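During the reporting period the student researcher (J.K.) took over the structure-prediction task from the postdoctoral fellow and processed the backlog of single-chain submissions. One of the processed entries is reproduced below for the supervisory committee.
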Amino acid sequence: MLSVHGKMQDKLIKLRHKIDEIDLEIARLIEKRVEIVREIGKLKIERDMKIRDMERENEILENVSKSTILDKDFIRELFARIIDYCRNVEYNLNNLKINAPEVAVLGPKGTFTEIAARKIFKDCRIRYCDTVDEVFDAVSKGIDFGVVAIENSLEGSINITMDCLLEYDVKIYKEIILDINLCLVTTQETNENEILAVISHPQALAQARRFLRKRFPSVKLQRHESTAAAILELKNLRGYAAIGPRETAIEYGMKILYENIEDAKSQTRFIVISKREGKGGKTSIIFALRDRPGALYHLLKEFAERNINLTKIESRPSKRKLGEYFFFMDFEGSLNDKNVKDAIDSIRDKTTFLKILGSYQSII
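J.K. obtained the following C-alpha cells:
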C-alpha cells in the first residue's frame, strides 16, 4: 500500500506527464502555424507583396488577448514572439544569398559592413574601400554590388551615404538590418587604467556615449573611418582603446574589456547598391520641391489618397543654396504596382528633381 508521500509523488508524476503532453501539442500547433505562414509567404513573394503587415499583427494580438482569462500582457508578449519568429520565416523564404564575384564594402577587414555583406552574398571576393564614397565609386565603375550603412536606430541617417545616393548613378538592390553589439577593446598589453583615448567610427562613439561618459569621463574621443580600422590602428598606439565588433577584435587578436556597451538596443540598416534594378515591396525616391505654399502637403497627398504607407521621409540640404532641400522618402509598394506608378507620375510636375532609387526587399 502506498504511503501518503508515495500517493502525492504518483499524482505529481501523472500531472507532469499531462504537462509534457500539452507542451508537445503546443509545439505541434506552432509547427502547423509556421507551415501556414510559409504558404502565405510564398503567395506574398509571387505577388510582390510586402512581408510585414502591422495591421494584421495588431489584430492577432488583440484577438488572442481578448480570448483568454490569462494575463493580457503575458499573452500579448508570448504571441508577439511567435509572430516575430513566423515573420522571419517569411523573410527567409526569399533570403537566398546572391551570387557575386566581387562586393565592395567599407574596410578594413572586419567592419560591420563586411559582416552585413557576408550575410547577403555567397562566397565572394570582398573589395575593401577606405571610404563610403569609394564603395559608391566602385559600383558606379563596374563592380556588381556594394554594401553601405544608411541608418542607425540610435543616431539616425548616415549623412555620407545619403549624399552619395544623390550623387552617384546607382540603385538600392536590397536591404538588411543587423543588431549592433559594440565592444570596448585594447591590445593585450593595455590595462583599463592606462586608457587615455578611445577611437572608432563616429556612429559607434555616439552609440556608446553614456557608457563612455560613465566609465571613462576624462578620455579623449577620436573619430576613425570605420570600427575595424580603429581596432587595427591600436597596434600602432599606446594608451588607446577602440570600439567595434567582437568578431573584429578576435580577428585582430585584441583584448575585449567590455561587451554590449551601446547605450540602448541598436540596429543598423545596410543597403546593397548596384547598377542593376532590384525587385521587392519597398521603394525609395529622392526629390526636390517647387518653392510654393503647401508643396510638400500636395505631394504627400498623392500617396495618402492611394493608401501608400510612407515608412520614412527626411530632408537634406541641397548644398546649392540656403533654404533648398532634397527629400529622401521610403514607402511600401513596388514600382510594378499600378497605384505606385500612378503616384510617381502624379508627383513629377510637383518636383524640380526626382530620382527613383528602385524597389527592393528587406532580408533577415
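The committee noted the following: The first helix runs from residue 4 to 46.
J.K. will present the remaining backlog at the next meeting.
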